[in-house]
Amino acid sequence: MQTLKVDVGHTIYPIKIGPGLLGDGELLDSLIPGRDLCVVTNTTVAGLYLEKLQATLGARRGDARRIVHCVLPDGEQYKTLDTVGRVFDAMVDARLNRDSTILALGGGVVGDIAGFAAACYQRGVGYVQLPTTLLAQVDSSVGGKTGVNHPGGKNLIGAFHQPLAVVADTDTLATLPARELRAGLAEVIKYGCIRDPLLFDWLELNIDNLTRKEPEALAYAIGRSCEIKAEVVGQDERESNVRAVLNFGHTFGHAIEAATAYAAYLHGEAVGLGMLMAADLSRRLGWIDAAEYARIRDLLMRAGLPTEAPRIGVARALELMQMDKKVLSGTVRLVLLERLGRAVVTGAYEQSMLDATLAEYCA
Amino acid sequence: MQTLKVDVGHTIYPIKIGPGLLGDGELLDSLIPGRDLCVVTNTTVAGLYLEKLQATLGARRGDARRIVHCVLPDGEQYKTLDTVGRVFDAMVDARLNRDSTILALGGGVVGDIAGFAAACYQRGVGYVQLPTTLLAQVDSSVGGKTGVNHPGGKNLIGAFHQPLAVVADTDTLATLPARELRAGLAEVIKYGCIRDPLLFDWLELNIDNLTRKEPEALAYAIGRSCEIKAEVVGQDERESNVRAVLNFGHTFGHAIEAATAYAAYLHGEAVGLGMLMAADLSRRLGWIDAAEYARIRDLLMRAGLPTEAPRIGVARALELMQMDKKVLSGTVRLVLLERLGRAVVTGAYEQSMLDATLAEYCA
User: Fold this and answer.
1) Does A254 touch chain B if contact means CB atoms closer than 8 Å?
2) What is the mean pLDDT of residues B144-160?
3) Alpha helices in chain A (DSSP H)
4) CB contact under 8 A, A150 and B99
5) pLDDT tens digits for A162-197?
6) How many structural domains are present in chain B?
7) A163 and A287, same structural domain?
């Protein structure tokens, strides 16, 4: 088991990564406070891991714990304010109080919804992330960004609310569909692009081991991703500055997700497309060269990610990008690459270059 | 104009109290940042003050400001997650970004909804409270508690999110219906009961001046109430301990509001009833004497507040009180009076005494 920590000043919490952790009662007991627990999960994950988790938690404390659960429909299109309302309903029905703890058992959608519910229920209860997808284990479960989508844009409603702990049981990846695994690899590739050229090199050598779920390769990719995420979040919890680089590919990707009603692409797939578009714009601006762009494109392809974006139209793409949370006083700020392994957040690009990228991918 | 300040450590903000402040462009300009503003108000207040506020804000900066608004239905029964969704819709429609500012123009319901929308929109934007009811001016606009009701309980969904400033234009009380004014007086009486026996004495002498809206008396009551609230909130923003005394009367009152679907009583009226019940329980426990109980009851009556509670039944009252946010590990903690002017938060009361109080008022 690897142990990392996230230190954002007002709170510090552990990330635990390893096989079999959902069966480790001693570990979970030490990390999960409270008498009353509410497991938030979805229909797919509930069928695979809910009973196991309940057994692990119940086995040690028995009657001292009261465990209720709320099973949501599976899919990004359900990451809405209405679905958060269902979590509140379940918690009120079970008469859960402010000293209850929410457990987010699932992927990024479950974690974002459960974390937001924890931020708002009785003005804030604790929660623990139990990510079961690669994307959640390498990215969304760490850092305290919670929230839901709005028809007008991705993640527009939410809160910063750090979990009490993140417990990534890598055994859960065994049941993860190949498409979901690939979506998670997009975020791993992202860390290489923005912050760690050596990780990018390593990924080029190991991408096939990852797509066939070789445990040692996965453990390294998850650990290194969490290290980078924890470091960046520790420097800038509220995304005043440096944290924004973690959004590489996301402004384009969010526009794609919103334009397709959050139903056609997995988040990681849209981010992969967005990274390609951001890399393309970086190349047009002369910041990275054609060879670097090609390396990024090739790695995304080898990871099995889509490299053809949906033809949503340039105007619609621009309109949706205007709703990005990084927009300040009307200027869309983008995360672009100065070189492979180094990203900047900037509004200082030529609009004609952005138009050209959008024309290439979306027209 | 009186100026007070609220200092919660991570932020300090001013409370401005006085006549004519909604027409003071220089003051509002100095307190409200951002290019894009969203005024959140309700149908009643919009008819009275929205145009005036827009004129004041527009007159100075003209095109430099973009002002949109969202007009909600009027009433505590609309303080729901759905209504917050309407604020989000209006903000997304207007393409408001993270550097926008929300202005809460109205009473406690508007302030709570607008503040919660500000806490969650793009994971947090700034907001300014412009309270137009006595209750909002003396209590709810100060301290950063935001949120909405759930059918199962009052204020169960929300966030702590401090405003950038509170601007209480006392001229707005001229249009306030007598019933609303009386509801606000309940919270003023509360401060006397829990923290300031001299304020209680002053209220006994001045209650008639207040009910007939004598400006000097109102100004003193508002200023002193805000001083006490700012002091308590400054000591304990997140209600870890001392802030809970501000909930005197609220656990009983919230149960009454929930049992009557938030439609029969104004919040202040329910709190007035709750204070009477908390005082009754304090008397039964032998903590205050019959004369002190009678003084509280008499003052509430002279303020024109109801002193007969709805007969919601003891069991239903107890059930709803279980959803109070002060409940810890199943114990309902109540704010009770050790003496007139001094409150404690405690779970150490005899259940039979609570049952007797509920039997007297609710059976």
Assistant:
1) no
2) 95
3) 25-31, 43-45, 51-61, 81-93, 108-120, 134-135, 178-195, 197-211, 215-235, 250-259, 267-284, 290-302, 314-321, 351-362
4) no
5) 999 999 999 999 999 999 999 999 999 999 999 999
6) 2
7) no
Cα gap B327→B316, rounded to integer Å: 16
Q: Of B88, B119, B322, which is closest to A95 when you measure between CB atoms?
A: B322
A260 and A303, same domain (yes or no): yes
Cβ of B329 and A35 within 8 Å?
yes
Q: How many CB atoms lie within 10 A of CB B363?
A: 13
Query: Are residues A123 and A255 both part of a single domain?
Result: no
- Set of chain A residues whose Cβ sits within 8 Å of the Cβ of B153: 92
pLDDT digits (tens, 9 = 90+) for A332-359: 999 999 999 999 999 999 999 999 999 9
Residue B328 Cα to chain centre, angstroms: 23
Say which DSSP state B310 is in. Answer: -
Q: Which of A159, A322, A328 sits opposite B119 (nearest CB)?
A: A159
Of B175, B194, B222, the last residue of a domain is B175
Are A251 and A157 contained in the same domain? no
Spatial contact of A75 and A177, defined as CB atoms under 8 Å apart: no
pTM of the model: 0.95
CA distances B315 to A76, B184, B309, B362, Å, are 41, 29, 15, 9
Within this chain, do residues B350 and B324 fall inside the same structural domain, yes or no?
yes
- Contact flag A120-B147 (C-beta cutoff 8 Å): yes
* Active site (annotated) includes residue A187: yes
Q: What is the pLDDT of residues B303-345, one digit of tens each?
A: 999 999 999 999 999 999 988 887 877 789 999 999 999 999 9
pLDDT at A94: 94
Query: Does residue B91 carry a pLDDT above 80?
Result: yes
The percent of chain A in helix, strand and coil, each rounded to the nearest 5, is: 55, 20, 25
A273 within domain boundaries: yes
Residue B196 neighbours by CB under 8 Å, 6+ apart: B224, B228, B341
CATH number at residue B262: 1.20.1090.10
B207/B308 same-domain check: yes
**Model pLDDT for residues A105-123, shown as the tens digit of each residue:** 999 999 999 999 999 999 9
Q: Residue A325's domain spans which residues? A: 187-362
